[in-house]
Automatic annotation (TrEMBL):
It comes from Chitinivibrio alkaliphilus ACht1. It is found in: Cytoplasm. Its EC number is 2.1.1.74. This is Methylenetetrahydrofolate--tRNA-(uracil-5-)-methyltransferase TrmFO. Belongs to the MnmG family. TrmFO subfamily. One of its GO terms (cellular component) is cytosol.
Length: 449
């Protein structure tokens, strides 16, 4: 089979599916990319654009040594199309890579439509399409009910669900800057975040209101556990009085830049778009009713007159028990020409989804070009992500996770925390550079942008 003869179907034009389509196109491979929106919408999406970010607008840290930054560095080495577009669409966010989500999605769609190798189909896929040499499932955590039912028929014993929450977005002009201030944690400059500071009395009142707030009426899906790294703020609050101020509302490193005043707690707002007209409430995912969000969140100093451009919501997330189903190249053990990528694998996070979409595309391209491509091991961040979603856990059930250093092979000797992080990053980037060089002949095939 040659690249010009191969036919590949990708189901889902989210982060993983869009990344995979663009990478395959660069290898000269024709792709039919299927996206059900706008004909079938999800509980969380608001547009029909590819790669829409439905939760935070942040792809997390760009600053080494951190696991999130390391994964981005490795994907940069591999020339990830979506990471490139994210950097082009960035808004100020300190050391984090945050994007204007509308601009980001628009640029992804523009890149897809500009490729002669990609055909974007606006239709819902309910079963695996026929007539393709390879198919990649990248429907994400908000898979349609019909396709989800189909997957349960195919992999009934391995299908699990978890549920996620979305933080509110606020109109910048409605923030009272006589009470709030701009600063980044530990920074002496003006800073990229707007900070709403609390006295102890203000925090006590807010905390009590949060505990008493009405939530959206429970449905059967809410019996499932939330993903631990994205808990609704009211769920965090019920774990104890200090859980918020030691977590997403910690005041450490956020003394007032002009007066030096220290605070009991701080709510941070992160810029949402290029123009700075909208701000995301960092860590404030919630399932409170819209009315209660208006009441309780306006108790935050500086947000008394807040205009909510988007309220927080809760939505269904699904994932498969991938370690029992997938080979390391992200193909299914029982169906070698069927691949899986994105959050449906149980990877969690934007960059992680881009990563698995990229790797699945490389695997398919390798098969089509008759090239044996073995991904690097867990001495790299990419290898750590792949190992997590393809290796059964030693104990307990498989659960989603973001990239973190615990997914990487340990140094082999004791080190202090800072030294250990630096070690992980140095080792990973050296290994990835060597790996890319070793597969240079394969990467040279990727010249169809």
């Amino acid at each position: 089979m040659t690249a010009s003869d191969a036919r590949v179907a990708i189901i889902g034009a989210g982060l993983a599916g869009s990344e995979a389509a663009l990478v395959l196109a660069e290898y000269g491979i024709s792709v039919d990319l299927f996206e059900m929106r706008p004909h079938t919408m999800t509980e969380a999406h608001t547009s029909s654009k590819p790669a829409e970010l439905v939760c935070s607008n942040s792809l997390k840290s760009m600053e080494l040594p951190s696991a999130h930054a390391l994964l981005k560095e490795e994907l940069s080495l591999l020339e990830s199309p979506l990471l490139e577009i994210a950097k082009m669409s960035a808004v100020p966010a300190g050391s984090a890579l945050a994007v204007d989500r509308s601009l980001f999605s628009a640029r992804v769609e523009e890149r897809i439509r500009a490729s002669s190798k990609i055909t974007l189909h606006r239709k819902e896929i309910q079963r695996l399409p026929k007539g393709y040499d390879y198919t990649l499932i990248a429907t994400g955590p908000l898979t349609s009910s019909s396709f989800s039912d189909y997957l349960q028929e195919l992999f009934a014993r391995d299908n699990f669900n978890f549920y996620d929450a979305i933080a509110p977005i606020i109109d910048a002009e409605s923030i009272d800057m006589s009470k709030a201030f701009s600063a980044s944690r530990w920074s002496d400059g003006p800073g990229d975040y707007i900070n709403c500071p609390f006295t102890k009395k203000e925090y006590d009142q807010f905390y009590s209101a949060l505990l008493e707030a009405d939530e959206v009426k429970r449905h059967s899906f809410e019996d499932a556990a939330f993903f631990e790294a994205c808990l609704p703020i009211e769920v965090v609050a019920r774990r104890g009085y200090d859980t918020l101020r030691f977590g997403m509302m910690k005041p450490v490193g956020l003394d007032h830049p002009k007066t030096g005043e220290k605070f009991f707690a701080v709510c941070q707002l992160r810029q949402e778009n290029v123009h700075g007209t909208a701000y995301n409430m960092v860590g404030f995912q919630t399932r409170m009713t819209f009315g209660e969000q208006d009441r309780v969140l306006r108790m935050i100093p500086g947000l008394e007159e807040a205009e909510f451009l988007r309220h927080g919501t809760i939505h269904r997330n699904s994932y498969l028990n991938s370690p029992d189903l997938l080979q390391r190249d992200l193909s299914f053990l029982e169906y070698p020409n069927l691949f899986l990528a994105g959050q449906l694998t149980g990877n969690e996070g934007y960059t992680e989804s881009i990563c698995t979409g990229h790797c699945a595309a490389q695997s398919i391209a390798g098969r089509i070009h008759n090239y044996s491509l073995d991904f690097p091991g867990n001495v790299t961040a990419i290898g750590g992500v792949l190992d997590h979603i393809t290796t059964p856990p030693l104990k307990g059930r498989y659960t989603p996770t973001n990239i973190n250093f615990s997914l990487l092979a340990p140094p082999g000797k004791k080190m202090r925390k800072a030294q250990r992080k630096a070690f992980y990053c140095d080792r990973s980037l050296k290994e990835m550079t060597v790996w890319k060089h070793e597969h240079g002949s394969f990467f040279k095939l990727r010249n169809h942008r």
